[in-house]
Amino acid sequence: MIEVDGLTKRYRTRVAVEDVSFTVPPGRVTGFLGPNGSGKTTTMRCVLGLTRPTAGTATVLGVPYRQLDVPMRRVGALVDPRARHPGRTAYAHLLALAQSNGLPASRVDDVVDLVGLGAVAHERVRGFSLGMGQRLGIAAALLGDPEVLLLDEPVNGLDPEGIRWVRGLLRDLAVEGRTVLVSSHLMSEMEDTADHLVVLGRGRLLADVAMADLLGRGASVRVRSPRAPVLAAALHRAGAAVSPQPDGALRVDGLSAAAVGDVAFAAGVPVHELATVTASLEAAYLALTGEDVEYRAGAA
Amino acid sequence: MRVGPAAVLRSEWTKLRTLRSTWWCTAVYLLVVGAFAWLAAATTHSAPTADAAVGVVLTGFAFGQVVLVVLGVLAVTAESATGMALASLVAVPRRTRLLAAKTAVVAGWAALTTALLVAACVLAARTLVAVPGGVSLTDPGVLRPAGLQVAGAVLVTVLAAGLGAVLRSTAGALGVGLALVIVAPPALALAGGRLASLLSRAMPALRVGEDAFLAVPTGWPMGLAVAGAWAAAAWVAGAVLLERRDV
What pLDDT digit, counting tens, does each position of A192-203 carry? Predict the structure, then answer.
């Protein structure tokens, strides 16, 4: 369980996070979405006690992170793939972290194998690719077999196989009843992974919704009839917004597919095609964040 | 399940011993101080007293201690100047405990290597320098400079670690550390005048046994107190800033 309440972080010249509140319950993958610079990393660092909030609180398992005695047994975190000393080997890096929390050295071997770094465990981290750095960070997060996981952009830099592996891992961890918060700036990375989304834009909370609701929100009905003008008029009277499509079909907003069928039947209009069209997640996400992108390419 | 300070100490020892820089620094320290001691002992045929003989062979520490500044600074900035600090503070969010363990380990390493070197120096004086009555290991005139050398090494390392925590950059902390212990004390001594001489004595100058190296001479109790005050002030400032800063 992660609880963020009224969290605000101001730097001298800008506001990174403003009055953000949300709760991450166990047993599901919560996606933490937002464009670059929207405050995801700042929020996660506040939760981990790395950054001190200007106002508000952030707790993990009911207490501020900095009060946890053996944090790695409770909470695993991937903050940054560069959170390591380049001159140390992967094994030495993980061993030092494990020892600081009284974890046995055997856990290092376990996680090294789990993330697939077995072959390079005794090489200096300096030569690691971004993807290998991510795997090392995920290994560190899993060292203490924690019940809460916070992963900041874990698939950034991973190859397709690695991305699929992380998705599976996150799903498995959530199914085991753990709390999983995973951030990303790409909606497509969340599509098959997250059950719930917390969306930030310019440091403010834009949405805290179930994935299914977000998909339903942008849904419309597509209907095709040889007597389209009659049907459009009938739907309009029923209170729907109707817009003709280039291919002759009608797009109906505000009525379910069943209701559209009923209206057509009552009007005695034949229907050749009737379907619910869900907006793509990408479109739903862009609709949410469109006005809140901090860095945007200038219009020509 | 609680994990005590011993776990953090063990972790910090792993961090120290798994960086090449630690072993380079140690090798240079042993080589510089050891070579000077042997050279000094071999070219000194006789000395009037045991403490005079020991004072001569310890000369190498004047230069060798510079390595301790590097070692102490790097122990801290190896984390703050790389991303490692993030990983360390997520693992050990009690920051003062982390810095204390880190400092204890590096200062302990400095104490151990210095003690070995001092023993080697005394041995060199005993075998190569002719002293009436010989160089006895139980002579207070031998034990005092030996103990002071180890204490001085610990204080220089703690001062360096504290500076690393305050400044967070390797270059910055090294610059300030070396200025304080090896540049400013002799420079102020050379400048002359009452104020400069007072300031020179207030600097944490490197010491060879009982004596300040190239700086305005001060007795060893004063030298120890001044170095101790600098080390304590730098370390406490580092701990306070570490607690308060965002990473």
Answer: 789 999 999 889
What is the rounded CA–CA span in Å between residue B112 and residue B106? 10
Separation of alpha carbons A165 and A183, rounded Å: 16
Q: For residue A88, give the DSSP letter.
A: S
Return the ∠ at Cα B84 (arms to B229 and A171), rounded to 5°: 145
B84-91 vs B61-80: helix crossing angle, rounded to 10: 80
Asked whether residue A91 carries a pLDDT value surpassing 60, the answer given is yes
Interface ipTM above 0.90 = yes
CA distances from A19 to A208, A293, B65 (A): 14, 18, 51
A152-162 core/surface letters (b: 16 or more CB in 10 A; e: else)? bbbbbbbeeeb
CATH domain A220-277 topology: Alpha-Beta Plaits (3.30.70)
Distance (Å) of CA A50 to CA A77, A100, B8, B77, B91: 12, 17, 18, 17, 11
Q: Give the mean model confidence (pLDDT) for residues B184-190.
A: 92
Nearest CB to A100: which of B7, B20, B85? B7
- Report CB contact under 8 Å: B3, A70: yes
Question: Residue B35: its pLDDT value, please?
Answer: 95
Give whole-number Cα distances, B148 to A97, B72, B122, B135, B241, in Å.
35, 19, 14, 17, 30
What pTM did the predictor assign?
Answer: 0.88
Name every residue whose Cβ is closer than 8 Å to that of residue A212 and which is 6 or more positions away in sequence.
none
Whole-number percent of chain B with pLDDT over 70: 99
Q: CA-CA distance, B54 to B146, in Å (whole number)? A: 8
Which of A51, A77, A87 comes nearest B246 by C-beta? A51
| pLDDT score for A220 | 85
Residue of B nearest to A96 (CA): B11
Cβ neighbourhood burial of A106 (10 Å; 0-12, 13-18, 19+) = exposed
Which pair of tokens denotes residue A126?
Answer: 């300096």
Query: Nearest residue on chain B to A133, judged by CA atoms?
Result: B83
Q: How far is A165 from chain B (nearest CA, A)?
A: 23
Rounded to whole angstroms, the Cα distance separating B201 from B206 reads 11
Q: Give helix B170-178 / helix B140-167 axis angle, nearest 10°.
A: 140
Cα separations in angstroms, B54 against A94, B131, B134: 45, 10, 11
A102 with B1: Cβ contact below 8 A: yes
- The answer to whether A85 and B84 are in contact (CB under 8 A) is yes
- Segment B27-37, tens digit of pLDDT: 999 999 999 99
CB contact under 8 A, B86 and A79: yes
Contact B84 A97 (CB under 8 A): no
Backbone angles phi, psi at B223, to 5 degrees: -60, -45
Domain ranges of chain A: 2-210, 220-277
**Cβ distance of A52 and B87 shorter than 8 Å:** no
Indicate the CATH number of A2-210 among 3.40.50.1220, 2.40.50.140, 3.30.1330.10, 3.40.50.300. 3.40.50.300
